[in-house]
Design goal:
21% of the residues lie in helices and 28% in strands. The protein is an alpha+beta fold. The strands form four sheets. It has a seven-stranded antiparallel beta sheet. A four-stranded antiparallel beta sheet has the order 2-3-4-9.
Length: 394
């Protein structure tokens, strides 16, 4: 005798997560699964974060990389694993220009070759062992790595910021965050000015009207008519008689984002895609001059560094933290509701996403043509699980 047929119904399937890049069908799903083309220079840290004789562990799209500074000040970047037992080299120690694994004392030079074994070789010839090395440089106070094809490192250059050099460099303000959000969400956020409501307390811009948007090659250019820097404290230091703050020009000059207000206020945004839901973001703001409130005079240059620190603490960093909260919430929302209908109103956002999808697909196509796939393509934004630690007897 058969049982109640109602009891034989299978349990509803658990909802699946967002699709991978190859399986994604909509533009939103595609862009939220895309990596970033590694054949560019990416900022990974401030120079001040890497004193002599220290290491810094980072990732590019799930692929672990260690950057270290030799005791002579030289910079090096290697795959963050010892070829012996796969321990993280970032946990090792710097010896001169070399990096030594903390387990068996295998020592690597700046190109990734093992140059010393701190133990007996059991009568065997010294093995030729190597991990991947990456071009690395310092510019604009930041440490940059080239995680892609080393042959292209001399072709592609770190973005020039002429405002920070010369005999009269502009005032500079830096901010950096590690946000639990996909890199494309951050590019959308910093270029889409329809979210002024989020910043209604600080009012860095408002009533923005998109006047131009265009995708040409590997660059999206867009412009808004908007009032820039008019909220509270900031409005007192902007000389609107000298600077046109009624519009702003922006560009996603892949993979870097930048803006220009009246030729006198500029900013750069450098995004490091650490994995599928983690991005480190570096903001560099440049100001030609700062007005003394109530006068037509500008702040003396010797006082600008102090002013930038105060402005960063009181205005810019709290404002950017709002952006961080928003994109992290967007990430969680996408992971839960990735199949929901797409409702996107700003046409410029579609251009950012088209460019991001195309550049990642082009990298994957190049990588498939190589004899061996890159570690970045194999990682595909996934982070390897960390070591398991027993908490006590079972």
């Amino acid at each position: 005798m058969s049982g109640d047929p109602r009891r034989a119904r299978p349990a509803p399937a658990a909802p699946s997560g967002p699709p991978a890049f190859a399986e994604a069908r909509s533009k939103r799903a595609k862009v939220r699964a895309a990596g970033m083309d590694p054949d560019y220079w990416y900022a990974v840290a401030y120079e001040s974060e890497l004193p002599r004789g220290t290491t810094l562990a980072t990732r590019f799209w799930g692929h672990p990389i260690v950057v270290y500074r030799g005791t002579d000040g030289s910079l090096h970047a290697l795959e963050d694993r010892c070829a012996h037992r796969q321990l993280k080299l970032s946990a090792g120690e710097v010896n001169g220009c070399h990096l030594t694994c903390t387990y068996h004392g295998w020592t690597y030079d700046g190109d990734g070759h093992v140059v010393h074994y701190a133990h007996d070789l059991f009568g065997r010839a010294r093995p030729e062992v190597k991990v991947s090395g990456y071009p690395v440089t310092a510019r604009h106070g930041l440490v940059w790595i080239f995680p892609g094809d080393p042959a292209l490192a001399s072709v592609r250059t770190v973005p020039a910021i002429p405002e920070l050099s010369g005999s009269r460099p502009w005032a500079r303000l830096d901010a950096s965050y590690t946000w639990q959000a996909h890199h494309s969400m951050i590019i959308d956020n910093v270029s889409d000015f329809s979210h002024s409501y989020l910043h209604r307390r600080y009012r860095p811009f408002w009533d923005a009207k998109l006047t131009h948007h265009e995708l040409t090659g590997d660059r999206v250019e867009l412009s808004y008519d908007t009032c820039v820097g008019g909220g509270g404290l900031a409005s007192r230091f902007v000389d609107r008689r000298r600077v046109d703050t009624t519009s702003i020009d922006l560009a996603f000059d892949y993979p870097y984002q930048r803006s220009d207000t009246g030729g006198a206020i500029k900013h750069w945004c450098f995004v490091l895609p650490m994995d599928r839901r983690t991005s480190r973001v570096f903001f560099v703001f440049c100001f030609d001059a700062v007005r003394i409130p109530g006068t037509r005079r500008t702040l003396p240059r010797r006082l600008l560094p102090l002013f930038m620190r105060l402005t960063g603490a009181l205005l810019v960093k709290p404002l950017l933290r709002q952006d961080g909260t928003a994109v992290e919430s967007e990430q969680l929302g996408y992971e839960t509701h990735h199949a929901a209908p797409i409702v996107e109103l700003n046409p410029a956002v579609g251009l950012f996403q088209d460019l991001t999808i195309r550049k990642w697909q082009e990298f994957l196509d190049r990588d498939r043509a190589r004899p061996r796939p890159s570690g970045i393509a194999l990682a595909d934004g996934r982070v390897a699980p960390g070591p398991r630690h027993r908490k006590g007897p079972p």
